[in-house]
Amino acid sequence: MKGITGSDFVGLSHFEAFFKSPNFWLLIKNTMGISLYSLLIGFPAPILLALALNEVRSMRFKKTVQLVTFAPFFISTVVMVSMLIIFLSPRLGFVDQIVQALGFESINFMGVPGYFKSIFVWSNVWQSIGYGAVVYLAALAGINPELYEAAKVDGASRFQKIRNVDLPGIAPAAIILLILSVGQIMNVGFEKIYLMQNPLNVSTSEVISTYVYKTGLLGADFSFSAAVDLFNSVINLILLITVNSIAKRISDSSLW
């Protein structure tokens, strides 16, 4: 109300309060855990799909697989989470019915903290793998056909062709996307996590983005939440610069 010049400067008090908060290490662990899990599974998945589709000779089968894998990308986050809740609901969801048919007890998947990360990551892979594969398929389409002919003349096997022709051809695109992914490693998707969150799994689902929302908007502590979000952005910036520098040293591809 007094304006920037008329207000008291609090210095680093909000940052200190966050670092001393009992939730600090829980938020860091959950955010980093989900992000690294997503990067470990979600980054190579579209590459493997693109390489597999590139080896398919039947155009009809190839287009069908592309359509089936690309379609989930257009499902909104709210609808996607609703589908997950229905599929994984105890006693009524088809996943739990399969579990019971195999002789196991009914499981409330959305209520078990240990299952949250896997549900979040693998549903993300299902939704985005087709879209991500398009980028790599475009890179594969740009590879000089003479390289494939030379590999064929040299008697290269299919796996040798993938290793020596396909992977080097998509490496520049993969490196750029990896840099961008690492630069967003602290920005776990807020909307989906918040919709999947419930009192039973909050111990593993509470991340920095949901904490900022609850503290800043629901709790009206705007200054503190702004400091937490700034800390999050600074970490992402440091990671982005670091990974870009490493990529620049070991390869010819980088953001700048």
UniProtKB/TrEMBL annotation:
Keywords: Cell membrane, Membrane, Transmembrane, Transmembrane helix, Transport. The chain crosses the membrane at residues 34-53, 65-88, 125-144, 165-186, 222-243. It is a multi-pass membrane protein. The keyword Manganese does not apply. Residues 28-243 form the ABC transmembrane type-1 domain. One of its GO terms (cellular component) is plasma membrane. SUPFAM superfamilies: MetI-like. The keyword Transmembrane helix applies. Coiled coil: none annotated. CDD domains: TM_PBP2 (cd06261). Pfam families: BPD_transp_1. InterPro entries: MetI-like, MetI-like_sf, UgpAE/MalFG_permease. It is found in: Cell membrane. GO terms for biological process: transmembrane transport. Belongs to the binding-protein-dependent transport system permease family. This is ABC-type polysaccharide transport system, permease component. It comes from Paenibacillus pasadenensis. The lineage of its organism: Bacteria, Bacillati, Bacillota, Bacilli, Bacillales.
